[in-house]
Amino acid sequence: RRKQAEVGSLAGCRVLVTAGPTHEPLDPVRYLANRSSGQQGFAIASALADAGANVLLVSGPVSLSPPAGVKYLVCETAREMYALVMESGQFDVAVCTAAVADWRPAHEAGQKIKKIGEADVAPPLTLVPNPDILAELSTKSAGRPKLVIGFAAETENVIDHAKAKRERKGCDWIVANDVSPHTGVMGGQDNQVVLITSDNVEQWPRMSKADVAKQIVERITVWISEER
Ligand code: CTP
Ligand code: CA
């Protein structure tokens, strides 16, 4: 029914992909992070490049090599990722897969925080909010990407939370997944997602992250061809 994405069908299309976790430093040797491996975002960047798109992949720290044919920028913190994205000009499509840390330690100690001398007293950890890249892109007054796709990592009430997230962030589509430890999604090879658009909720079967990427790129291609 739905036409297949043709090779080169995203030719000339500028696409941003964010991926991976961010690391939020506490001191020179410690950081707050999450279990994101970057695999889903890298697979999407790769599939977009295969479809002929002009892809910028902005990633936090991961142990993956960038896909061929993709412009690649690496960063560590949410603020760095935000700055790289905002400095990179305009995009036709943005796919925000990064597991950006929502908060960072309020103070980054200049030297390693020492245990000695503070017997049995743990240092307090105060957090402050990070900028939200997806929300910022979605609500840009000038130069908003025509299609902004967010991801929603949930551990309960996946569809309800993701629908609310789509509205709150102002993005067009949300790809929601259950990242509870028993699913093996975070860090694993497979993913099971729900695609939420303004008028549809589609449950996709469990498949490899590479296949999820291909399906998402096919949907982007169809959307772009209808837009043109
Ligand atoms: N995101 C982002 N910048 C942030 C936080 C999130 O760009 N500072 C993006 C993610 O890349 C993802 C989407 O927002 O595409 C949703 O991220 P998620 O963590 O699931 O949602 P939050 O709104 O942060 O809500 P919560 O963590 O409370 O579920
Ligand atoms: Ca979050």
Automatic annotation (TrEMBL):
Free-text cofactor note: Binds 1 FMN per subunit.
EC annotation from Swiss-Prot or TrEMBL: 4.1.1.36, 6.3.2.5
Gene Ontology MF: a single term: FMN binding
One example of a Gene Ontology biological process annotation: coenzyme A biosynthetic process
A GO cellular component entry from the record: phosphopantothenoylcysteine decarboxylase complex
Reactions catalysed, as given in the entry: (R)-4'-phosphopantothenate + L-cysteine + CTP = N-[(R)-4-phosphopantothenoyl]-L-cysteine + CMP + diphosphate + H(+); N-[(R)-4-phosphopantothenoyl]-L-cysteine + H(+) = (R)-4'-phosphopantetheine + CO2
Names of the cofactor(s): Mg(2+); FMN
Keywords, in A-Z order: Decarboxylase, Flavoprotein, FMN, Ligase, Lyase, Magnesium, Metal-binding, Multifunctional enzyme
Signal peptide annotation: none
Residue span(s) of domain DNA/pantothenate metabolism flavoprotein C-terminal: 10-221
Superkingdom as given in the UniProt entry: Bacteria
Family of the protein in this entry: In the N-terminal section; belongs to the HFCD (homo-oligomeric flavin containing Cys decarboxylase) superfamily.
Functional note: Catalyzes two steps in the biosynthesis of coenzyme A. In the first step cysteine is conjugated to 4'-phosphopantothenate to form 4-phosphopantothenoylcysteine, in the latter compound is decarboxylated to form 4'-phosphopantotheine. Catalyzes two sequential steps in the biosynthesis of coenzyme A. In the first step cysteine is conjugated to 4'-phosphopantothenate to form 4-phosphopantothenoylcysteine. In the second step the latter compound is decarboxylated to form 4'-phosphopantotheine.
Protein name per the record: Coenzyme A biosynthesis bifunctional protein CoaBC
The gene coding this protein: coaBC
Residues of the full protein shown: 183 to 410 of 410
